[in-house]
Design goal:
- There is one protein chain.
- This protein is of the alpha/beta class.
- It is built from 8 helices and 17 strands.
- Helices cover 28% and strands 23% of the residues.
- The strands form 4 sheets. It has a 6-stranded mixed β-sheet, with no helix packed on it.
- Helix 6 links the parallel strand 16 and strand 17.
- The radius of gyration is 22 Å and the shape is globular.
- It starts with a strand and ends with a helix.
Length: 346
């Protein structure tokens, strides 16, 4: 049997942004639900962080999630196995109070896993592992030790995998903890990364600038062969446009409507022509536009930011190259969290 795995959907993201919810919906309407229907999918595994804000829910975001996702899955008769992630657990030290359990009780087709539990997916026994914290660490380790499941699926924070492009997570649990399994799938990190046994599947869509040009989507898993394939999301939110005296008259700006755009200037010989280029982008209705014209720090010996890098990559590389007597991975994680919280305010 083939099932679909999806993770880190973050309904209500970016302060319940209508722009982002419309972007999410295009993926669900055009890619996700047509695939489910055309391939007769009856089971979905949601590996955590279904909702974005662990301390509360915007009623508009909840209505959006129910109308555009959960009601549709219920009508289709699809069973949804939902694992609690760190964004859906109210407290940081326990999963006992969590958003998915509280918000989705009306759906008989949704099964919630707030503690480690074995479940059957067709004829395959799988160990579901929710977010590991102070309250459930011992029981999680015990479940991993005692299970005879070939596969585990969870919301894990393991070292040695990409948290996002350009940043390898250097803290978290050791991957050797899962060496007994044939395959392990996880959410939490939003970019795809694997060591041939443990697979971080990435989230379905771009949410921040560090996601630009990073392939997203969902995963199809065969419970008989244990093989998996990705179904990619072709839609993007973030775009880098490189300006090199580009002719505004022949430049097609239509694909940037309702997108977040950064114009990186490599060559600008005529300021008026550049203004017309920018005006053309505004005329199609870009959601947000920034220009980057000069990375010269005035001292070639100092740290240099490259035009192709996003803000978070620059910060991570700066920390990595800095001569400081601190745990750089902890500092990078603080900067990542702070950056994403700052993005929520925009």
């Amino acid at each position: 049997m083939k099932i679909v795995i999806i993770t880190d959907q973050h309904f209500g993201a970016r302060k319940n942004s209508k722009l982002f919810h419309n972007y999410f919906l295009k993926f669900y309407n055009d890619i996700f639900f047509p695939y489910l229907e055309e391939n007769g999918i009856t089971t979905i595994v949601d590996m955590g962080d279904t909702f974005d804000n662990r301390t509360g829910i915007n009623f508009g975001a909840l209505a959006w999630a129910k109308n555009n996702y959960y009601d549709r899955l219920e009508k289709m008769g699809i069973t949804v196995h939902t694992i609690v992630g760190n964004h859906t657990a109210f407290y940081k030290n326990t999963n006992e109070v969590n958003a998915v359990d509280l918000l989705l009780r009306e759906y008989n087709n949704v099964r919630i896993y707030s503690s480690p539990e074995e479940a059957m997916l067709d004829n395959l026994k799988v160990l579901f592992i929710p977010w590991i914290n102070e309250d459930n660490t011992e029981s999680t380790f015990s479940s991993i030790k005692n299970t005879d499941s070939k596969c585990a699926m969870g919301h894990l924070e393991l070292r040695g995998f990409r948290a996002h492009r350009g940043c390898i997570m250097e803290h978290g649990f050791e991957s050797n903890l899962f060496k007994k399994f044939t395959k392990v799938f996880s959410g939490h990190y939003h970019t795809r990364s694997d060591d041939q046994k443990i697979f971080y599947l990435g989230n379905p869509y771009e949410m921040f600038w560090n996601d630009v040009n990073d392939t997203r989507g969902f995963t199809v898993f065969d419970t008989e062969t244990l093989e998996h394939t990705h179904v990619n999301n072709p839609y993007r939110m973030f775009y880098n446009i490189y300006y090199e005296d580009t002719d505004h008259q022949t430049f097609d700006a239509r694909e940037y409507a309702n997108k977040i755009v950064k114009v990186i200037v490599r060559k600008k010989s005529n300021a008026k022509k550049f203004e017309k280029f920018i005006d053309k982008l505004y005329s199609v209705g870009v959601a947000d536009l920034k220009t980057v014209e000069n990375f010269d720090t005035g001292n070639p010996e100092e740290f240099e930011a490259f035009e192709s890098e996003d803000t978070l990559s620059i910060l991570n590389r700066y920390i990595q190259e800095a001569e400081i007597n601190l745990d750089k991975s902890v500092l990078q994680n603080i900067m990542r969290t702070t950056y994403q919280e700052a993005c929520e305010l925009i």
